[in-house]
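Practice problem: predict the structure.
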Amino acid sequence: MANQLAQPSPQVLARIGGITYLIIILAGSFGELIARDSMIVSGDAQATAGRIMATPLLWRIGIAGDLVMHICDVILIVTFYFLLRPVSRYLMLMAVLFNLVQTAVLVANKLNLLYPLFLLGTADYLKALDSRQLEAFSYLSIKMHDHGFGLGLIFFGCECLILGYLIFKSGYLPKWIGVLMGLAGACYIFNSFSLVLAPWLASRIFPLILLPPFIGETSLCLWLLIKGVNPVKWKEMTS
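Answer:
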């Protein structure tokens, strides 16, 4: 009984992973597409500042949603560790480390989203700068968040490559999902390095470059949630 409680069945792990992944996708989409995209006016610091200060609660909710997403990141990678450890414990451990680096970078990066709320506030010390400067610094911090997010995705891309390989080799999850996850990892890495080395290229390939990752991650999420793993193949691998 104690052993069963300590080691949930693969189907239970799959359902936990699917639910957690779904929360990550929904929270991330809300923060990026609703909370921020509705406020950020590309190239216009004054308009962006005006929108943020008009609805600061929505901006804060977007940040909170991102933090929920990163909490779920930790839960998900632990779930993946137990699900894919039978294929290769060492590779799965490497994936865990890549994920931890990614999560740490992205959580620290949220400070860049808090800066506009401070800069556009009413504190007396802000009177040392005029409104134009504060708006410019605020917009710059948002741009820094975009680049910080891209840097974090380099490590997430490496994790996806490993997960894709382990899923492909597992036998108890579909090989085609492994291929999609590997492609997702390659796209994340290519997009992030383009952001650093060739910004002109990154602006041209975005957001189409993120379509394969969306398809791959959504497919894995739904498969874990609905189908789970093949229990017969799981037992063969674990034995």
